[in-house]
Design brief:
- The complex is a heterodimer.
- Helix content of chain A is 74%, strand content 4%.
- Chain A is built from eleven helices and four strands; from the N terminus they run ααααβββααααβααα.
- Chain A has helices spanning 2-32, 39-55, 60-94, 102-124, 151-173, 175-185, 187-192, 197-223, 230-245, 250-270, 276-290; strands at 129-130, 140-143, 147-150, 225-226.
- Chain B is of the alpha/beta class.
- Chain B has a single domain, classed as P-loop containing nucleotide triphosphate hydrolases (Rossmann fold), CATH 3.40.50.
- Chain B has helices at residues 9-16, 62-68, 79-92, 94-98, 109-121, 139-156, 167-173, 191-196, 198-204, 207-211, and strands spanning 2-3, 28-29, 32-33, 47-50, 127-131, 159-163, 176-181, 184-190.
- In chain B, β5, α6 and β6 form a beta-alpha-beta unit.
- The longest helix of chain B has 18 residues, at 139-156.
- The radius of gyration of chain B is 18 Å and the shape is globular.
- Classes of the chains: A mainly alpha, B alpha/beta.
- The A-B interface holds A 175, 178-179, 181-182, 185-186, 188-197, 298-304 and B 17-19, 38-44, 48-49, 51, 53, 55, 57-60, 64, 67-69, 71-74, 103, 105-107, 109, 112, 119, 123.
């Protein structure tokens, strides 16, 4: 029972990272039909920015603003930095090759990915870095007498799920969200409605990376150790989550991410830790064979 | 505007609304050179383009589709104006009110055409570009759509540039017509003149024998 509950919270935590990163993949894919390979590296870069904010001046931020104040600043700083970083990458790596078609765009995305992860290695070094213990809350919450949940996990879940709910609301319930979805469906007709494609691009390339950065900071706070190439693994898992939910579908990415995290943790806890990645990618293969449009795929077929 | 397949009718509409870049010449709307504007800014100038094949946003609801029609003019029209226009569209096409919560992709072809027209009208355009509204619709629906097109023109004083394959129907409601042949205007005149033109009769109205049937 205890193991089950622990693995469920672990699964939800890591699932929320996958979900946040997956939302970024899905947003960009929806609007540009581009699998943004650099997205996993946005996650890493966000994690390193949060790390830097927490270690600068040997914990000055934490000393000045308190434990939670420091964490809030690390998160906000990383998200803001990556919102700008995402726009910069779009400007430098993608916009010049839009007209060249999809393949050059994919190659450019791979290039951007390699550039960012190597840039991180050049700046912060090739070895593991650790989030400072003084910047991470060590308290735990005791539930039902025998279950201990670290405070940081609760905060991770609370903040991630709240932010997902906000994004869900914006995308599914507002007119702006309808404009984003319309652009994803049919860019030309969206233009006829007066929707500026550029402003939709700005939205997906700032919000997507910022969500990835949030996940990156939380990953650092939960697991402490970060490394320059960790975005690859997280990115691949998050991409799997995107496929599970149905690519281009933002609620699908949330559901896919949380589901994948849960399945992975339960498998790790009850079957085998060593085989968990095999299991995860087996899910991907099965979904691709059985339901390539994802669990929450296209709701209706388009009539012509 | 009439013309055979490939005559350039749809291309001309896309040039007017900025989707296809202009090679030579000028497009003016009420004296303004449109090349100064980006395509998404034209809705605010009073242009609505209802594209060929309806192009409704299939996974959005009917209501979301209609609301998106106001996107380009959302800073120009008040909430109340938009609400009133929407009411008017619902009186033109009562079925849209019934189906407002439904996904647009679940509508029939005729209903999708009504939605596409409503989505164009909700921005209160001064000029409406209408591309083949009768395409693929049952005759009774074609009748209905053409009645509404006429009504929009007469009641709301919207100028309409209608592209049609159904020449007979189009000339029955139009004031003025152009015949486009391989990218050039071959014949133009009032609808009555075109109906009597021998070339138009032979090539577009199915010849005299058919006409007398």
């Amino acid at each position: 029972m205890q193991l089950l509950l622990e693995q469920l919270t672990n699964g939800l935590t890591i699932g929320s990272f996958y979900a946040l990163v997956a939302m970024g993949y899905s947003m960009v894919y929806g609007v540009m039909k581009l699998i943004n390979f650099a997205h996993g590296d946005f996650f890493t870069l966000g994690s390193y920015l949060g790390y830097t904010i927490l270690v600068i001046g040997s914990g000055w931020v934490t000393r000045t603003f308190g434990l939670w104040g420091g964490i809030a600043l690390a998160i906000l700083g990383a998200m803001l930095g990556l919102a700008l970083g995402g726009l910069l990458v779009e400007r430098v790596a993608y916009r010049p090759v839009y007209k060249a078609g999809r393949l050059p765009l994919v190659v450019s995305a791979l290039g951007a990915s390699i550039f960012i992860s190597n840039g991180i290695m050049a700046v912060w070094g090739p070895r593991f870095q650790a989030y400072p213990q003084t910047g991470i809350p060590s308290g735990t919450l005791r539930l039902f007498g025998e279950i201990y949940i670290p405070d940081i996990k609760l905060v991770t879940l609370l903040v991630s799920l709240t932010l997902m709910a906000v994004i869900y609301f914006i995308v599914e319930k507002t007119l702006f969200g309808a404009a984003v979805r319309a652009t994803a469906l049919d860019r030309e007709t969206a233009t006829l409605m007066g929707i500026n494609f550029r402003s939709i691009i700005l939205f997906v390339f700032s919000v997507g990376p910022a969500l990835g950065a949030l996940a990156g900071v939380f990953a650092g706070l939960n697991y402490s150790r970060i490394i320059f190439n960790m975005g690859w693994g997280y990115g691949l898992k998050a991409f799997t989550a995107t496929i599970i939910g149905g690519i281009g579908n933002i609620p699908g990415a949330m559901v896919g991410g949380l589901l994948l995290g849960l399945l992975e943790s339960l498998f790790e806890g009850f079957v085998s830790g060593a085989w968990k990645n095999v299991f995860v990618f087996l899910i991907l293969i099965v979904i691709l064979i059985v339901r390539p449009t994802g669990l929450i795929g296209e709701k209706v077929a388009e009539k012509v | 505007m009439l013309g055979a397949n490939g005559a350039g009718k749809t291309t001309l509409l896309k040039v007017i609304s900025g989707l296809v870049p202009i090679k030579s010449g000028v497009v003016r709307l009420m004296g303004q050179d449109l090349s100064k504007y980006l395509p998404h800014q034209l809705a605010a100038l009073g242009m609505a383009h209802i594209p060929e094949g309806r192009r409704v946003f299939a996974t959005l609801t009917v209501e979301e589709n209609l609301n998106l029609g106001t996107w380009g003019v959302r800073h120009k029209l008040s909430e109340r104006q938009i609400r009133e226009t929407k009411e008017w569209i619902f009186t033109l096409f009562p079925i849209l009110r019934e189906r407002r919560k439904q996904l647009a992709g679940t509508l029939s072809g005729g209903e999708q055409q009504m939605l596409a027209i409503g989505r164009g009208l909700i921005s209160k355009p001064k000029i409406l570009l209408l591309d083949e509204p009768s395409l693929g619709l049952a005759p009774i629906l074609v009748q209905e759509i053409f009645r509404v097109i006429r009504q929009i023109h007469e009641e709301e004083k919207v100028s309409i540039l209608l592209v049609e394959q159904n020449a007979r129907k189009a000339l029955s409601i139009a004031n003025y017509g152009y015949i486009l042949e391989t990218g050039k205007i071959a014949i133009q005149g009032t609808a009555a003149e075109l109906r009597e033109n021998e070339h138009v009769k032979a090539a577009y109205l199915g010849g005299t024998r058919l006409r007398n049937r």
